[in-house]
Specification:
The complex is a heterodimer of chains A (about 100) and B (about 375). Chain A is mainly alpha-helical and about 100 residues long. Chain A has 2 domains: about 60 residues; about 35 residues. Chain A is built from 3 helices and no strands. Chain B is an alpha/beta fold and about 375 residues long. Chain B is built from 15 helices and 11 strands. In chain B, strand 5, helix 4 and strand 6 form a beta-alpha-beta unit. The N and C termini of chain B lie far apart (about 50 Å). The relative contact order of chain B is 0.15. Classes of the chains: A mainly alpha (about 100), B alpha/beta (about 375).
């Protein structure tokens, strides 16, 4: 067995032990709790910043990013509704 | 064709250096036509290579996960599940979910699972003479396909749930994370809109933090083998080409499925209708993998315990969540078995199959494990 094969064997043993240990760490509430709280705090800060920016834009009478997103979404929904109607029409025609 | 290199690290390094020049491998190469497009998603139909008289009657719709690209099922020539099915005479369709943009944060679970998936099923079914299609869902795509079939069974001839989570009480570490009190789903959606793919990819890496290192060692060990390297690079390209998750849809996905386990509690609803597993009575196959650390076997096989179909089976194979679907082993085992499973459930008129179509399935290569009946 050459040096590389020996090293691989050692690595495989380390990897399987470490993976099993890390899985326990990642499922540990003592890790999950603070990690979740940090993510939540970051997200709430981002949402508050976005809201403040949007309020500033809106105060100047300008459409906000969210307004544009809502409009585009409505357009997409309209396209889908039209496709629904086309399908229903085709179904009704074929039933006649 | 480059000359075969001798095994060894030096050969591997040379092979990798050569690949730097040639760039990333091409993926999703099986010729296909777009038959429908709506918002970001589209429905593709692969061009048949078998004469019409020799093709199976019922078209097949493949539903990939929302967060990954569809071409995992059409990775590269010779490594493509789709290519295999087309060559076996199936009429194959696939959903490309596309890339959600900022406005898609408002897309709901019903928009995707009822309106979009429903349209894909109906459009696919319309290509067959019987107005039905076989549906295969992979991973989250399998969960979506199962929910849709439970609520709207009309056009679904059969269901294959490929490594699809159903019972989220057995959802493994992902379920532990999403059920952690510190994980505030509303703050995440309000902050991000769509859930960004780097966040999801990082969480998948954290499922097995040593996996990337092990992958690197495996690459150094076997990169001298061109066939291995082709597959590795194609899979890596796919693995690093993810899409973000539409926010509102994600909110319900985590809330109803991961936290409330709504499918197992029979409280899931789709488009205003109940989506009860017990209402699924079409032929159903649950495919599970022995080393799947994303969807544990128990999370996937729960489907078979709940459905009312008399024709249900589990196919349990070795391998991981992705490797077992795209590897060379899959080409010899999983793919032909799925093809035969569908062929046996095609109508009798097709390809001269008699009343006992299951004879075709039993004629398996000895090495390939057969589909086992559900308990």
């Amino acid at each position: 067995m050459n040096l590389w094969d020996q090293w691989k064997k050692g690595f495989a043993a380390w990897e399987s032990t470490t993976a099993a240990y890390m899985e326990q760490v990642m499922a540990n509430p003592a890790v999950l709790g603070p990690a979740g709280q940090m993510l939540t705090l970051a997200m709430k800060t981002k949402a508050a910043t976005d809201k403040a920016t949007a309020a500033w834009w809106a105060a100047m009478g300008l459409p906000t990013r969210r307004d544009q997103e809502r409009s585009l979404h409505k357009l997409n929904q309209l396209e889908s509704r039209l496709a629904d109607l086309e399908e229903q029409l085709a179904e009704a025609r074929s039933a006649q | 064709m480059p000359p075969r290199r001798p095994p060894g690290i030096l050969s591997s390094l040379m092979a990798l250096a050569e690949r730097v020049r040639t760039g990333p491998p091409k993926v999703g190469q099986t010729p296909a036509d777009e038959v429908w497009r709506e918002n970001k998603w589209r429905l593709l139909r692969y061009r048949p290579t078998v004469a019409k008289a020799d093709r199976w009657r019922t078209p097949i719709l493949l539903v990939p996960s929302l967060i990954n690209r569809y071409y995992v099922l059409d990775l590269a020539p010779g490594r493509s599940f789709v290519e295999h099915l087309v060559a076996a005479g199936h009429d194959v369709f696939i959903i490309d979910w596309g890339t959600p943009t900022a406005e898609d944060r408002f897309l709901t679970f019903d928009d995707i699972c009822h309106r979009y998936l429903g349209r894909a099923v109906r459009k696919t079914a319309a290509f067959g003479p019987d107005g039905v299609c076989h549906v295969l869902g992979y991973c989250l795509g399998g969960t979506l396909a199962t929910i849709y079939t439970a609520a709207e069974p009309a056009h679904v001839a059969s269901l294959v749930a490929l490594a699809a989570p159903i019972d989220f009480d057995h959802g493994g570490i992902l379920a532990t994370w999403t059920r952690s009190p510190g994980f505030d789903i509303d703050a995440l959606i309000d902050g991000f809109g769509n859930v960004p793919w780097p966040l999801m990819q990082a969480s998948f890496h954290m499922l097995k933090p040593t996996a990337n290192l092990a992958k690197l060692v495996g690459l150094l060990d076997r990169a001298w083998d061109d066939e291995f390297l082709d597959g590795f690079l194609a899979t890596e390209r796919w693995g690093n080409d993810n899409v973000s998750f539409p926010g509102e849809c994600y909110r319900r996905y985590i809330g109803d499925l991961y936290r409330d386990n709504a499918l197992m509690r029979d409280t899931m609803r789709l488009g205003g209708k109940p989506a009860r597993l017990g209402d699924i009575d079409c032929p159903t196959l649950a495919v599970t993998f022995g080393h799947d650390h994303i969807v544990p076997t128990a999370a996937a096989t729960a489907l078979l315990d709940r459905i009312s179909s008399p024709d249900k089976a589990q196919l349990h194979l070795s391998g991981g969540h992705v490797g077992a679907v795209v590897s060379r082993k899959a080409a010899a085992g999983l793919w032909p078995q799925l093809s035969r499973w569908w062929a046996a459930r095609d109508t009798d008129a097709a390809r001269g199959l008699g009343d006992d179509a299951s004879d075709d399935v039993d004629a398996e290569p000895a090495a390939a494990p057969a589909a086992t009946p559900a308990p």
